[in-house]
Amino acid sequence: MKKRILRLFTILFALYVILPANVVLAADESGIEWQKETFVGAPAYTLIENEGKLYAGTAGGGVYVSSGGEWFAINNGLNDRALFVLSLAADSGGILYAGTWDGVYRLDGNRWVAMNDGIDEESQYVNAIFEYSGTLYAGTSGGIYRYNGERWNPTTVSLDTYAFAKYKDALYAGTFGGGLFRFDGENWTASIAATDGFFFMQTDVD
């Protein structure tokens, strides 16, 4: 039987492995001992640590938070489409954001609040969210958007965007079929071309 590993994350001093069948494996610092964590009802898709808590975005089950070794759903304010969480991100102020099938949501206390002004219908699938130089960027099914504090504005990159990473003071974005784009704070430029398939990138190191 083939064993599929869907995603890998390093958070604080632990390695997390997302597997099919709603299972997440967590390794200790040695990488030898593994702890199995199972979500109720939905497979985990993404993980993030924010202010000492571990959050998981799931496919159809919304967002879960780990507390005392147990996982609890925090879905107040999310509609049915928003329960499909493609990305989680936190800004420098500790505010948590979720990229979903229904756009971007912000966690305000114990309730999620939609913040989709400016995002058109073709861009409602939000695959990635990233804070760069104090500004939020969203990688969507319709391209990259920039948040000005009140609404989202489209950038010059209109390709399906799946991931962001900061490297040497520049912001990089991985797209579907268009390769890698680089943002220097002023302009987006193509960095690596790709004509077929995904150019997917993920990192948790600035």
Describe how the helices and strands are arranged:
Elements: E1 7-11, E2 14-19, E3 23-27, E4 34-38, E5 44-50, E6 53-58, E7 63-67, E8 70-73, E9 85-90, E10 96-100, E11 103-108, E12 111-114, E13 126-132, E14 135-140, E15 143-147, E16 152-154, E17 161-167, E18 170-175, E19 180-183, E20 188-192
Antiparallel strand pairs: 1-2, 2-3, 3-4, 5-6, 6-7, 7-8, 9-10, 10-11, 11-12, 13-14, 14-15, 15-16, 17-18, 18-19, 19-20
Keywords:
206 residues; mainly beta; Neuraminidase; 4-stranded antiparallel β-sheet; globular; disordered N terminus
Can you walk me through this structure?
The protein is an all-beta fold and 206 residues long. The chain has a domain at 7-115: Neuraminidase. 0% of the residues lie in helices and 52% in strands. It has no helices and 20 strands. The chain has strands spanning 7-11, 14-19, 23-27, 34-38, 44-50, 53-58, 63-67, 70-73, 85-90, 96-100, 103-108, 111-114, 126-132, 135-140, 143-147, 152-154, 161-167, 170-175, 180-183, 188-192. A four-stranded antiparallel β-sheet has the order 1-2-3-4, with no helix packed on it. The chain starts with 6 loop residues before the first strand and ends in a 14-residue tail after the last strand.
